[in-house]
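Thread: quick sanity check before group meeting

JM: Hey all, I'm pulling together slides for Thursday and realized we never actually wrote out the predicted structure for the chain we discussed last week. Dropping the sequence here so it's in one place. If anyone has concerns about the input, flag it before I start.
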Amino acid sequence: MKDAKEQPSEKQKTIEVVFLSVFIFVILFALIFMGYQKVFAQKIFFGVKVGIHDIGGKSKAEAKDEINKYIESLNKKSLTVYINDKTLNPSMKDLGIFFDSETMTNQAFSYGRSPDLLNKLVQQVEAAVSTVQVLASPTIDVKKFAEYFSKNSDVIREAKNATLRVDDGQLVVVLSEVGNEIDLQSFRNDLKKNIAINKIDNQINIQLTTIIPEIDENQIVLIKPAVEKIVNNPITVIVNNVAYVANVEKLASWIVLKAKKNSTPDITFSDDSINEFIKNVALKTDKSVVNKKVNSQTGAVINEGSDGMKLNQAKLLTDIKNILNDSQKERTATAQIDIATKSEVKVDPEVAVKSGGTPGLFEGKYIEINLTEQMLYAYDGTNLVHSYQVSTGKWSTPTPIGTRHIESKTNRAYSSKYGLYMPWWMSLGGGYGIHELPEWPNGTKEGESHLGTPVSHGCIRLGVDSAQTMYDWADTGTPVNIHK
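JM (edit): ok, ran it. Output follows.
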């Protein structure tokens, strides 16, 4: 007799049902999950917010529009900051604070797209169930931030290193000063918290950090003898047999002390400061090339022209720094002058006659003074910009002929020699200049009737309106060609 077929127990049936249910659930969940991924392949997942703006289900472009609206609302609100017993209410713009909508959009889109499958699933469920905030992380323009508090608070100050200053030809020690600056990280963290809870105007207490100078008095005392050795021995620059001396004050202004931790500072030199000295020498020595101008039809010479001279500033900088860095070197540098040879240029006589001056004498802006005509012509290349009648030097105090440059400018100079004021003064060196009709201390002004007649002490006088126009138009360094 055969054994009866064994029937599955109730327990086995239950287990099979459970496994089948789990399997079906997993399959359904996987299908739903895959469908969710497909639907949101180019969209931000549900539950992601920026401030009060729900951006779930939106494309990146749509989300960026919402984020820009959110940023705009932040920028309209004022902050409340407390510093040194003073409450201030700056805007985001005042403090140089801005938000990057592109970064925030990418952050929102990346949520729930982790390369790790489990983490991806957790993020998507978390967003859908409880919402997720994309925080607006502020970027701060540190310079603008510091400028605001420097203007509106008296507690922000830079640390000042101890240094050396020339006083009556002697080096004296200038004491260091401790500084203060705002703890920017603490401020940024407090601001982010206020943004996160949508309480932008919650008070932020500014924390200060003490800044200790990098160079103290003890270090300065140790390095003082080495600095004295440099500045007490002047440097002479020879240009065309003329000497230009860098004295103790000038040499001291070239020195930059570079801090070293727990050691005496290094002595370095500022190229910018040395170049300033060199450029001032060049203003007195450089001569722009003036091309020979001839009438294109008759061949007659309009202007003989002259060769140009240019100080080789780069070489002189190198020579001066070599002297400064080598105490054994002779303290004299002979400058190299580069010559620019004039060329012959044919000029349409009609253009020359029409302008009354000589177009194209120099590249860019220049001034031409015709002593015979008693006229000033202002050119930009070949373009005549201004022309004015002037009064130049009388026979006993003539205006010097040649090419000079505007060395400096001041809107109201005083001549102690003649006891009068010279408005809109532009110095040409050697005591000569271009200026408005002179004024005496009692307010009396020389009349316009003198214009067109050489009656000055050598300067070039302009009328009331024309003097200021030229002052505003001409830059320092502008060539001034004076001829008969």
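AS: nice. The longest strand covers residues 420-429. The chain is about 35% helix and 30% strand.
JM: adding both to the slides.
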